[in-house]
Amino acid sequence: MTRNALVTGSQSQLARCLRMAGAPPGWRAAYLARGEMDITDAAQVHSVLSAAAPDCVINTAAYTAVDRAETEADEARRVNAGGVANLARWCGENGARLIHVSTDFVFDGRAASPYRHDDAPAPLGEYGRGKLAGEHELDKLPAGQGVIVRASWLYSEFGRNFVRTMLGLMAERDELAVVNDQTGCPTSAHSLAALIWRMLLSPEKSGLYHWRDGGVMNWYEFALEIQKWGQAAGVLQKMIPIRPITSAEYPTSATRPAYSVMDRARAMEDFGMPERDWRSELIRVIGAIAEQGGPQ
Ligand SMILES: NC(=O)c1ccc[n+]([C@@H]2O[C@H](COP(=O)([O-])OP(=O)(O)OC[C@H]3O[C@@H](n4cnc5c(N)ncnc54)[C@H](OP(=O)(O)O)[C@@H]3O)[C@@H](O)[C@H]2O)c1
Questions:
Q1: Given ligand 1 and candidates 60, 80, 147, 260, which is best to mutate, with the most ligand atoms within 8 Å of its CB?
Q2: Residue scoring higher pLDDT (296 or 101)
């Protein structure tokens, strides 16, 4: 019997990677854009999900404008907590599993070793607070029905992300300054998608998971890698000087965690998810951007 997964936010970079990889054996997936199901619209969520009757809802829809969330906290919370509440309500009433994606921004970044799933969250900003409130909505599901996967530093050939932004700036500018005092792990949305598809094959697993690719670095170091592989792929015609700066020299509305390396051991063990070589993932994504004709 084929089972049905329903993916919200079909235009997100993650949903596009899920679609590209394709659902695992025994599953078929439907993808709904915001226009087809706005997760903040409780009545629409109820009627669309009732008609589709999915066995599993995968929520990639989110308010992801981290800096804007500082001045639009209510809107961020309406999507990232209220929207999740609507999905969780339907899943709870109808016995469906809910796989929800959250973020490293639930942590304050003061740790000195990788964050475990059971470390205490302490968000620094409105985006993180809204996402944490969204996580709590899954607590209302019957036991065993909810899965949360926290990811960090997501990038792909789709949408808005650091890799595409950097390639655009590197092509336009003569020099660039990038912060070097925030440490994390660039994570391909393709590897997160692969983990999520594996989750469908282990329906007995539930609770909190962390995911990331293997390279630990700061944004400046990541920018150097992007430039190197961007030139190798022919996306960049010239190399420009890239200067390391501190976060204090590049103020943003939202404070970022200084350290957001996640401990992904539980995800690797429970779902048999192997590590993907982070550099190979970056080269693959930059190759796809080259095939698209560049980051614009
Ligand atoms: N990007 C990162 O670095 C990062 C890091 C950690 C965790 N995450 C989490 O990973 C997940 C996927 O992130 P992403 O970067 O792939 O997302 P993304 O590319 O920013 O896309 C978010 C999508 O959500 C949709 N959306 C917004 N409000 C909605 C609503 N009310 N109803 C339905 N859809 C709505 C948007 O629709 P429109 O296209 O119509 O605007 C957009 O397509 C999110 O939960 C995010 O919080 C992201």
A1: 60
A2: 101
Helix axes 278-291 and 162-172, enclosed angle (nearest 10): 60
What's the token pair of residue 30?
Answer: 């439907």
Q: 127 an active-site residue?
A: yes
Domains and their CATH numbers in the chain: 3-161+186-214+261-277 (3.40.50.720)
SS3 call for 241: coil
The tens digit of pLDDT for each residue in 202-226 reads 999 999 999 999 999 999 999 999 9
Our measurement of the distance from residue 211's CA atom to the centroid of its chain's CA atoms, rounded to an integer in Å, reads 9
Q: Which of 80, 60, 61 is nearest to 192 (CA)?
A: 60
Give me the pLDDT at residue 198, please: 98
Cβ-based neighbours of 40, under 8 Å, separated by 6 or more: 78, 79, 82, 83, 86
* Minimum-distance ligand 1 atom for the alpha carbon of 101: 45
Residue count (the chain):
296
**DSSP state for residue 70 in the 8-state scheme:** G
CA–centroid distance, 4 to ligand 1, in Å, is 22
pLDDT at 250 over 90: no
d(CA 117, CA 166): 30
Q: Beta partners for 177?
A: 243
pLDDT, residue 181, reads 93
Residue 103 Cβ < 6 Å to ligand 1: yes
The catalytically annotated residue of 31, 63, 115, 127 is 127
Q: What contacts 269, CB < 8 A, 6 or more positions away?
A: none
**CB under 8 Å to 64, separation ≥6 — which residues?**
12, 127
- Average pLDDT of the residues in 264-271: 97
Q: CA 23 to CA 20: how far, in whole Å?
A: 9
Tokens coding 275:
């590590």
